[in-house]
């Protein structure tokens, strides 16, 4: 039997199962009106679709906790079935579709680790470390006098992602990317 949680135990990050889908509490507010029963207004993010919804529950209502777990997995390769991952503890392999991968697909490298969120044993999301280091494989050459302050140009990374980088960067440079925003952070000296 799944664990139940009362509205007075709500916290940000708690995962609930509502109408068969996993949700995470983004924000909540306990409201005690002058008349009538107290209630809780909750902002919930659907962990499958990333949509945010607002719901209201009477104070004391119990909801079912979602059976969501996060596991460190190693990305192996991409094939026609999707992105192949291996659980580092059990060595079980999971095939993750393009839509579940989301933006993580732009920045993931073979043999690197990522956190895979599982709901009822099925992958529903992939999150990478906040920063990754990738090599520039294609970009326009810089010109003498170009500095970081003059603007940006597109650069294709080893994963196929295209990001805006300062003019002074060239092919072969390794750069740090923020995976949350997809933006260039800095050049990595190696």
CATH fold label of the largest domain: SH3 type barrels
Beta strand %: over 45%
Could you report the average pLDDT, rounded to the nearest whole number? 88
SS element count, helices: 2
CATH architecture annotation of the largest domain: Roll
Low-confidence stretches: none
**Strand order in space, largest sheet:** 1-6-2-3-4-5
CA-CA gap between termini:
53 Å
Largest sheet: 6 strands, antiparallel
Helix content: under 10%
The ordered H/E elements are EEEEEEEEEHHEEEEEEE
Domains (count): 3
For this entry, give a set of tags:
Transl_elong_P/YeiP_CS; six-stranded antiparallel sheet; 190 residues; OB fold (Dihydrolipoamide Acetyltransferase, E2P); translation elongation factor activity; 54% strand; cytoplasm; Rib_uL2_dom2; mainly beta; five-stranded antiparallel sheet; protein biosynthesis
Description of the molecule:
With 190 residues, the chain is mainly β. It has 3 domains: 4-65, SH3 type barrels; 68-127, OB fold (Dihydrolipoamide Acetyltransferase, E2P) (Beta Barrel), CATH 2.40.50; 131-188, Nucleic acid-binding proteins (OB fold (Dihydrolipoamide Acetyltransferase, E2P), Beta Barrel). The protein is built from 2 helices and 16 strands. It is elongated and about 70 Å long. It starts with a strand and ends with a strand.
